[in-house]
Write a structure and sequence with these properties.
0% strand; 14 helices; 268 residues
Length: 268
């Protein structure tokens, strides 16, 4: 069952389309770093700064804003498709409900994770070709790095890989939330857009309402990718646990909605 669901997820056109969208967003983010601003002195860009610009630093950075909706594209609405077409009932004749739900969750999570991870890893060698490796220019960009400075100094390439995996994990979290919403909401398109709307709401209105508390800062979805924003003991009482607890809470909400929604379908 798991193999079948994974094959359906990764062999779909929607999966590769979402990977392409992520890659376009990375290219758009890097263009901000590569563009000449007419300065008298042009400082060469190191390739890892070009990459970080695409992921979280640049003025044109799109990934931290749109990842909650991009990860919904590959396979999140597949459950609704199974349910509406009668495929779910057919599968349950051959396997148990528990096995079906487990396979669906794994397929949604895996496809969302890969949707972000594969383009992010693929963009690293591209930035390697676009930028320079001379670390003598690093002094001009050192102020941009506020998390794991020693790791960044020794292994800049692995530092980028760390951010790629972190971004993919965030995408997985919101895909599971979307899966849960698709199981309880009648309108599947609302289920697709609601996590993205929450990201905007949490990063603007909710943050403004709770701006004087660490909770308000912790809920800024669009600022989750920069690790230093939430893993700073000086800014948040929860310190390093801020992001993991937030992610676990969202995942539990998504899983609960999915299981409860499917249970009501079985009852009817």
């Amino acid at each position: 069952m798991i193999r079948t669901e994974l094959k359906r997820a990764f062999c779909s056109k929607a999966f590769w389309m979402s990977c392409g969208i992520t890659l376009v967003m990375l290219a758009f983010g890097s263009s901000d770093c590569l563009a000449s601003r007419g300065d008298d002195i042009i400082i060469p860009k190191t390739w890892w700064i070009i990459y970080l610009n695409a992921v979280l630093l640049g003025m044109k950075t799109a990934l931290p804003i749109f990842y909650p909706i991009v990860v919904m594209i590959p396979y999140v609405l597949s459950y609704r498709g199974d349910r509406d077409s009668g495929y779910r009932e057919l599968i349950l004749i051959k396997t148990s409900r528990k096995a079906y739900l487990r396979a669906k969750i794994l397929a949604v999570a895996s496809s969302a994770f890969a949707t972000i991870l594969l383009p992010c890893l693929g963009w690293i060698p591209v930035c390697r070709l676009l930028g320079v490796t001379d670390r003598s220019y690093e002094q001009y960009y050192r102020h941009m790095i506020h998390f794991a400075q020693s790791f960044y100094d020794k292994h800049p390439g692995w530092y980028l890989v760390m951010y790629a995996f972190h971004a993919a994990l965030l995408g997985t979290v919101f895909a599971i939330v979307g899966l849960g919403l698709s199981a309880v909401l009648k309108n599947k398109y609302v289920a697709l857009l609601l996590p993205f709307c929450y990201a905007i709401f949490a990063s603007s209105i909710l943050t403004a309402l709770l701006k004087d508390t660490f909770i308000g800062k912790s809920l800024e979805v669009m600022k989750l990718m920069p690790l230093q924003m939430h893993y700073s003991k000086k800014s948040y009482p929860l310190g390093f646990w801020t992001v993991p607890i937030y992610e676990v809470a969202l995942v539990m909400i998504g899983l609960t909605l999915f299981i409860v929604g499917d249970y009501h379908v079985s009852e009817t």
